[in-house]
Amino acid sequence: xxxxxxxxxxxxxxxKGKVITxxxxxxxxxxxxxxxxNVEVECPQKMEVxxxxxxxxxxxxxxxxxxxxxxxxxxxxxxxxxxxxxxxESVGEGVEDLKxxxxxxxxxxxxxGSCAYCQSDKTNQCEKYRVNPMKSTMFGDGxxxxxIKGQPVYHFLNTSTFVEYTVLDAGCLVKxxxxxxxxxxxxxxxxxxxxxxxxxxxxxxxxxxxxxxxxLGAIGLAAIQGAKIRGASRIIGIDINQDKIDLGREMGMTDxxxxxxxxxxxxxxxxxxxxxxxxxxxxxxxxxxxxxQAFLSTRDGWGVTVMIGIHTSPRFLxxxxxxxxxxxxxxxxxxxxxxxxxHIPSIxxxxxxxxxxxxxxxxxxxxxxxxxxxxxxxxEGKSLRCLLxx
Length: 390
Fold this sequence. Notes:
globular; about 20% strand; about 25% helix; six-stranded parallel sheet; alpha/beta; 2 domains; 11 helices
């Protein structure tokens, strides 16, 4: 892939002030194929922005929400999607940090910049724009900005990117360097940023330290690359899919463990590979049994487990409280501890200068109309990210 094929920005901006009719992939009920529909997208209201989406990709959160595995996702019809890149088409009243023509990526975990959370360096949560899977309308008036013949179509994770034009709250958009290829930048909306951010922010891995990454999907592979960039001396990847070995090594993995091939628990193997256990483990699966193995794989006294995977099971954490008295710690990670407007521009710079490499994450490309095929590829474990283009 080369530079983003934006040949005429004026074409993208010719719709300012008008209701736009465009294509969207609409989910009418959990687990049923998305249908390509003509939808009406309203103009942005106060502190909102309308964006022309040029590229979008599918994350596992889109997949599990579409399948109905999360009870919160019950508002239909709905437009899923939260990894994307595009161009600002128009801005609403009060928006000062974005203008027509800006290259942007939407982010499900926004940043208003003024609340107590945004002002703190201890969290990347925002009082107003933090991720909320229950939310399906806009902040301003509690209504949707997208409809089909007058019927509201609900929003998803502050974003809704499976559509040619979408409206977002301004706090959920990040302006990026226009020299960055927009096709690849869609990956920074969620998966890659979450993985590298967990390593850099939530764990703060330092040169020479040791790491184990459980689950080598896009987030896990990003965590591996983040650990390599930080100079970790040992990076162990754990996955039941042998096909992940080559990708893992390309990202910086030094060792690979397949739990299906072991005759003893994973943590015992890792404790043998790195005497006493690794400094940090990252659970990227969303499985409590895997989480326990990740926890026990860290060194007592100071080991830290970062929980990145989304756990939809009603089960509670598989630990006895006294196990925490060994000195091991566990932290949860939301979007890798990244404040979207504050931190993402610097991550983009790492992509532009070649420090952070994105090409290998894009395993497939399809036209937008083939979005159901892209979902199937992800569901079957055949793709990391399938890039959809309009």
